[in-house]
Recover the amino acids of this structure.
RNA sequence: GGGGGAGUCGCAUAGCGGCAAUUGCAACAGACUGUAAAUCUGUCCUCUUCGGAGUUCAUUGGUUCGAGUCCAAUCUCCCCCA
């Protein structure tokens, strides 16, 4: 299990590579569709494989632990067997839920206690049991348990939070190294850089993580309320320190523009709920900007959603029809929007990779970024 | 023909003397970044320099300081009995 760095752009930090996993190779830069509960919402696996051509999808430790639970996942033989996805998977550790479910949790040195959003029951997540749960889920790449620090945290809080995340990382590593994979293939553990929007903390954290990874590094705690420019600066600071021969995963980001900017700064892997969630809410991403398909202006636009798309839904259905589906709250509308957006995201990173290899990434990206931000 | 009931901002509703007027739907926009999200927010009589201003509750007239609310007549619709 390793990472092959193929090309580094001469005018930026952009890279093209291949991440090797037990369930297949992943070309980078890559976007990973989010499948929190063991399913990419509203998307069948056939479409995920054949139309979208997702190389790797995510699952979530917190959500899968609560439902269906470890007993079922273990009995199924892991999440790959349970949901039938034969390509690589990555699980987030529940660190994001420390942030997003802040009203239902309490952080302690030992770990984080959650009040289940499903039935109110209490659950303690520790670095140790989060490793154990991710062994049971069996994803190819698993994440360290961290605290995703809010973007507006003050320096004092951000420092304490980062130091806690570092101590938790050491415990994750100890447990991970003391346990064996359950299903006959290796798993990779990615540690996570924190430090909020503070340069000194990001530097400290990047160094800490760089010394402790053997597989890849994640950058967390970004796109959580701080200005976009600050996020870009933090990515630069961190990627200057992280090992060049290992993949860098920017967690939870982001818009198409964010992704191109981050690739330029040396990021290799992305995930985000944006294409699926915004898709279900009627927002389509295109190379020319975004479309709010709910808007009246699309009611009589009988053009295909995207005639050039590899996804059948994009070629077969028109914008007017999709407008109708979403207006009528038909389930197919959610499916088509999700398929469209994910196909777009995967094509975007695929194009990025091609331009990195061909040597004109910066020209291509700088021209495209302003287009992507437009509203159609 | 007789008796009873009802007319409120696109539709459906609330309203029982101090109201530009409740709620739902529809409509028109916006938000969404390691998913408590097929969710949430705003606007929704007219004009506005966003402070307000002006017209409203079938129609007309009346009572009252004040009427969507009370009274009378008219118009329309629904139900029951002949």
């Amino acid at each position: 299990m390793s990472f092959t760095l193929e090309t580094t752009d001469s005018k930026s930090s952009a890279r093209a590579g291949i991440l090797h996993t037990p369930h297949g190779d992943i070309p980078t830069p890559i976007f990973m569709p989010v499948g929190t509960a063991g399913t990419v919402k509203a998307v069948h696996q056939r479409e995920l494989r054949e139309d979208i051509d997702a190389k790797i999808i995510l699952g979530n430790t917190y959500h899968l632990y609560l439902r269906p639970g470890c007993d079922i996942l273990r009995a199924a033989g892991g999440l790959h067997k349970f949901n039938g996805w034969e390509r690589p998977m990555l699980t987030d550790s529940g660190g994001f839920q420390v942030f997003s479910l802040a009203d239902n949790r309490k952080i302690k040195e030992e770990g984080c206690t959650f009040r289940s959003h499903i039935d109110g029951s209490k659950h303690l997540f520790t670095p140790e049991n989060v490793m154990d749960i991710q062994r049971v889920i069996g994803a190819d790449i698993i994440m360290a348990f961290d605290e995703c620090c809010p973007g507006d945290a003050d320096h004092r809080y951000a420092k304490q939070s980062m130091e806690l995340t570092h101590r938790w990382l050491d415990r994750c590593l100890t447990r991970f190294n003391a346990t064996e994979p359950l299903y006959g293939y290796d798993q990779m553990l990615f540690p996570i850089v924190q430090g909020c929007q503070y340069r000194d903390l990001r530097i400290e954290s990047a160094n800490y993580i760089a010394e402790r990874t053997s597989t890849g590094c994640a950058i967390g705690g970004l796109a959580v309320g701080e200005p976009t420019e600050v996020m870009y600066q933090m990515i630069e600071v961190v990627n200057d320190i992280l090992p060049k021969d290992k993949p860098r995963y920017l967690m939870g980001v982001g818009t198409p523009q964010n992704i191109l900017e981050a690739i330029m700064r040396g990021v290799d892997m992305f995930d985000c709920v944006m294409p699926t969630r915004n898709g279900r809410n009627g927002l389509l991403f295109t190379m020319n900007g975004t479309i709010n398909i709910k808007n009246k202006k699309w009611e009589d636009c009988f053009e295909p959603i995207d005639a050039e798309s590899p996804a059948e839904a994009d070629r077969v259905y028109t914008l007017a029809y999709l407008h109708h589906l979403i207006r009528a709250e038909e389930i197919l509308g959610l499916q088509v929007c999700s398929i469209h957006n994910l196909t777009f995201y995967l094509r975007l990173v695929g194009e990025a990779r091609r331009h990195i290899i061909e040597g004109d990434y910066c020209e291509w990206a700088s021209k495209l970024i302003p287009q992507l931000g437009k509203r159609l």
